[in-house]
Specification:
Arc Repressor Mutant, subunit A; alpha+beta; 36% helix; Alpha-Beta Plaits
Length: 151
């Protein structure tokens, strides 16, 4: 393997199994353990890899409701609303977007009452002009990561 593609191959190997040992990665990629360690350190320092976490099936842990919240927000209030959503423990994604809505957030909830409580807190903010909430009926594809292409 050439070092030109090592970072990409290393990221892809970790996507397959983020718990692999440095030795296992080194054998798989045909480089030394030190090389793997140095490249991992560089990827982490650059922010390309920010952690090694499990993929959680929230439904199996009792969070049976997934909701998508779309918000139109008064311009100056955008940072405050995104910060509020970011700090909600059950919000798993927050996006500032173009199009009809300024913010799209995705949350996981135990039930509709739990969902309703959080949404009411958010939309009560005076900067929220309009909201639209969709409840997910079936997650066909969720939290899927993809292999990084070589340049």
């Amino acid at each position: 393997m050439t070092y030109d593609n090592l970072d990409t191959e290393l990221v892809n190997a970790l996507l397959g199994n983020g718990r692999q040992s440095l030795r296992s990665l080194a054998e798989q990629l045909d480089v030394s353990v030190t090389t793997i360690s140095n490249h991992l350190d560089d990827l982490e320092e650059a922010g390309a890899i920010t952690g090694y976490t499990p993929i959680v099936n929230y439904g199996r842990l009792g969070y049976d409701v997934t909701a998508i919240l779309q918000l139109k927000v008064e311009g100056p209030g955008l940072p405050d609303i995104t910060e509020t959503l970011h700090n909600e423990s059950q919000t798993v994604s927050v996006y500032e977007t173009t199009g009809d809505y300024d913010i799209i957030a995705i949350g996981k909830f135990r039930d509709t009452e739990d969902m309703n409580d959080q949404i009411k807190r958010i939309v009560a903010d005076a900067d929220v002009q309009e909201s639209n909430t969709s409840v997910v009926l079936n997650a066909v594809k969720e939290y899927e990561q993809f292999s990084v292409a070589n340049d």
